[in-house]
Amino acid sequence: REAAAERNGVTVPGKQADDLIASLAYDLRTSLNALLGFAQLLEGRLGKDAGHVEQRYLAGIGKAAERLMHSIEIVHRIARLEAGTFELALRRVDLSSLFAKEFERCRQEADSRGIPLRLLLATDRVFVLSDHACLKESVGLLLDHAIAFTKRGSIVVRLYESREGDVCADISITGMVCPETLLPSQLSTPEATNPEYAHSSR
Questions:
Q1: Which of 7, 71, 122, 159 is least buried, going by the fewest C-beta atoms within 10 A?
Q2: Single pTM value for the model
Q3: Residues near 192 by Cβ (< 8 Å), separated by ≥ 6?
């Protein structure tokens, strides 16, 4: 039906929205890339003469721009999913390496909050068949949210293969503080009624 509508010159609403968001995403990415470029140029010009405050401001600009780029990509991906134009690019992904890289990306934020991050690899390499971008986004959001809702304590991820050959990731979080709005609806265990608790999931 959608193909027939396109042949007759009728724009499918979902595809129209996807095209609009793709155009907006391109414009936003272009502007953000300019901001990142100027920030890096300024950082290079200042060099060692940059004080602690200047370095913090420049790091903040870079971090904010990267987060916006990430949010733009998520919105664009959702639009393609709703329009039916999103396709998974399945390939063999090194999950061990992916977790390690995401840990390094999050380490500065965790260190600034005094939250130890630990990645325990039971095997050197763990591979899964998945869409790399989607899997990277899922792991990244998992760690970002864990850090955001942890006021004190630690975050430990153990990656291993079960006896059945399944790939498993155990995430242990101590000192997590959940928003009160989440406690009644999503957390029903007795220990979860206390805002600060140890959480482990697979």
A1: 7
A2: 0.61
A3: 178, 183
